[in-house]
Design a protein that fits this description.
Elements lengths: L7 H7 L8 H9 L8 H33 L5 E2 L3 E2 L2 H46 L3 H5 L3 H43 L1 H48 L1 H6 L3 H53 L5 H43 L13 H8 L21 E8 L10 E8 L4 E5 L6 H8 L7 E6 L2 E2 L5 H6 L1 E4 L10 H6 L7 H10 L3 H6 L17 H15 L3 E5 L7 H15 L3 E5 L11 E6 L2 E6 L1 H5 L5 H10 L13
Parallel strand pairs: 5-10, 5-11, 8-9, 9-10
Antiparallel strand pairs: 1-2, 3-4, 3-6, 6-7, 11-12
Helix pairs in contact: 2-10, 3-4, 3-6, 3-10, 4-6, 6-10, 7-9, 7-10, 9-10, 15-17, 17-18
Length: 641
């Protein structure tokens, strides 16, 4: 039965889709058993003690019945292989059985938890490794919530199945089969009577279970809707207060909360009806069995101990059948969760990480080149790139939008140490060019050459290690300032971090904080101003010491003072590096060696600021006219690409 106040995890698990239990789905589910293999001794040890515990549980009614027979008819209580036992002997045997059952249950529960948690820790690690190794095209087709669900909700469902559902399935199977066998040996006549009452209980459980699950799911959906309202309101609390809409939000929440109450009360009525019916049916069946058994007892056709034994075994069978529907549902959800996790683990990666299988192209590219400067047969990998970049007739479409051609025959050359500015209207393709440079995507046709070789010939992780980007919207990690800077070169010492910060004009404001470089930046760097975040990002890039630098609107959203400090830091950062500058504020790129003007995915103009400004009908001249107040045609120009 669903709980009255389900948690968010309960809601997520309950809403997991179920998969049919066919041979193929079960085979795929069992393939994840490889994560249990390193822990096989403990797993099989726990499985063995689980069966011993279940068998001892089946012995309880047998010993309890013998205890009653020994009390009522001394010298007549017999057990298989043990013969006639006294009351004290049966009691001692019963106590020993219960103690051993408790010990075996403890061992099996501990073993399954250790194996399950260890195996699932490995599975979560592999899922995360696979996730961060996938190409950008994969993330363009998926939502973040869907991907995090693979590691959280789906793995939690598998965890529940391995730690709880599998042991319960084994235990209840032993109780069901063993219980039916034992009651058949105890009294055939009572067995027929008992089995005659079970179909009614099973039908009632199925009937009420379906309706309870429907109402429970409706309640959870409505509750999720109220939580969404709370989340949206708190995320936009400044807007709520600015528009004085507290009463409006309260009304919206109250209406959603009323729908939760209506659904919950509907579920409560069905739950109360089911409880009442179950009590009548269950105890009614027991009354019928006791009534028939009492008649047999009256004629000495059965002993009091056997009747007690029969009733206890009947409860075992009824309990096992009662849990079968829930276990079946959990198995279906687990099969579905397993399929989604396996889909993730089968995705082709772009970078090989320890413990992660890779895609064919990524694997071939990594193995065809040199690691740490050693030759593998083709050509030696340089210690550092010179920084020459050539786009040769590049055409490109995003995999998520194959019908839209983004770049058309783009040809562009950047010599080592040269500053290339990319300007153009919104959607022209500027950011796409930098995405290709970082090899987030590969050209559809044409080539990207770096230092005279196809970019795909370099190991991807090594190639990106030679580059750095300072974006417009810097999203810092939620650790300290030092941790965010050292992200550019993990393992760098404090002196290198401080020197990089000094060059980025960040050391002064960092040192002014009470905790200095240990200051926590908050969620996505919210505790720092925009200019401070930019300078931390620049310090990170300086520490990385890249051969190729990408500045993507790095000063577009700053005030004048912050822009001045950031621009000085950027000038230091660009020295001796090939730099691609994406900008819409043309004043920031006047000193670029060359400016490439992009329009509708094509390079339409290339030259210096003076050269392009001298073209009477040029696009760059029109952009300059718009921004600097010169006469010319107005052209919409956005800071985003």
């Amino acid at each position: 039965m669903a709980r009255s106040n389900p948690s968010q995890e309960d809601i997520a698990l309950d809403r997991l889709p179920k998969a049919p239990l066919n041979r193929e789905n079960l085979r795929q589910t069992l393939e994840l058993a490889r994560y249990v293999r390193p822990y096989r001794p403990r797993f099989f040890g726990g499985l063995a003690t689980l069966f011993v515990s279940a068998a001892l549980g089946l012995a309880f009614p047998l010993l309890a019945g013998s205890l009653i027979d020994a009390a009522l008819h001394p010298g007549q209580a017999t057990l298989p292989y043990l013969g006639v036992l006294s009351l004290n002997q049966v009691a001692l045997l019963l106590a020993a059985s219960v103690s051993l059952q408790a010990l075996c249950s403890f061992n099996s529960a501990l073993s399954f938890n250790r194996v399950g948690q260890s195996a699932l820790a490995d599975l979560r690690r592999d899922c995360y490794q696979r996730l961060i190794s996938l190409p950008m095209a994969f993330f363009a087709r998926r939502r973040v919530g869907e991907l995090t669900s693979r590691i959280s909700t789906d793995v939690a469902q598998i965890e529940g199945a391995l730690i709880d559902s599998l042991p319960q399935l084994c235990r209840q199977t032993v109780f069901l089969l063993g219980g039916i066998t034992m009651i058949a040996f105890t009294s055939v006549r009572l067995t027929v009577v008992m089995l005659g009452t079970l179909p009614l209980l099973i039908a009632a459980a199925v009937f009420f279970g379906r309706r309870l699950r429907r109402y429970s799911r409706e309640t959870q959906d409505q509750l999720a809707a109220t939580n969404t309202i709370v989340e949206e309101t708190l995320q936009a609390i400044a807007s709520v207060k600015a528009f004085a809409n507290e009463a409006f939000e309260l009304g919206r929440y109250s209406r959603a909360n009323a729908r939760v109450l209506t659904a919950a009360l509907g579920a409560a009525r069905w739950r109360a009806t089911f409880v009442a019916f179950f009590i009548i049916a269950l105890f009614g069946g027991i009354v019928i069995v006791l009534w028939v058994g009492a008649g047999l007892l009256e004629t000495d056709a059965i002993s009091p101990g056997k009747l007690t034994r029969f009733v206890l075994y009947t409860t075992f069978v009824a309990g096992a059948m009662g849990q079968s529907a829930e276990l079946f549902s959990q198995i279906q959800k687990t099969v579905g969760a397993t399929q989604r996790v396996r889909e993730l683990l089968r995705e082709e990666v772009e970078i090989e990480l320890p413990g992660v299988g890779g895609g064919t192209r990524a694997r071939d590219a990594e193995q065809a080149t040199v690691d740490n400067g050693r030759e593998t047969g083709a050509w030696p990998l340089p210690v550092r790139l010179r920084g020459e970049v050539v786009f040769e007739g590049v055409n490109f479409r995003y995999p998520s939008r194959p019908e839209v051609a983004v770049l058309h025959d783009v040809s562009l050359t950047a010599r080592p140490g040269e500053r290339i500015a990319l300007v153009g209207p919104s959607g022209a393709g500027k950011s796409t060019i930098t995405a290709l440079l970082l090899r987030f995507y590969d050209p559809e046709s044409g080539r990207l050459l770096i230092d005279g070789r196809d970019a795909r010939d370099y190991p991807l992780s090594w190639l990106r290690g030679q580059m750095a980007i300072v974006p417009q919207d810097v999203l810092l990690f939620g650790g300290s300032i030092a941790e965010n800077i050292v992200y550019g070169r993990p393992g760098a010492d404090d002196a290198a971090v401080r020197e990089a910060s000094r060059q980025a004009n960040a050391d002064d404001f960092i040192s002014a904080f009470p905790e200095g470089y240990a200051t926590l930046v908050g969620d996505r760097g919210i505790k720092l101003s925009g200019g401070q975040r930019q300078r931390v990002a620049i310090a990170r890039a300086i520490l990385k010491n890249p051969a190729i630098l990408i500045l993507d609107e790095a000063t577009s959203s700053l005030d004048s003072e912050s822009e001045r400090l950031v621009q000085v830091a950027l000038d230091r950062l660009m020295q001796g590096r090939t730099t691609f500058i994406v900008a819409h504020r043309l004043a920031t790129i006047r000193n670029a060696d060359r400016i490439a003007v992009i329009e509708a995915g094509r390079v339409v103009e290339v030259g210096s600021h003076d050269e392009l400004s001298a073209k009477p009908d040029g696009l760059y001249r029109r952009l300059s006219a718009l921004q600097f107040g010169q006469p010319g045609d107005a052209l919409e120009f956005s800071p985003t690409d």
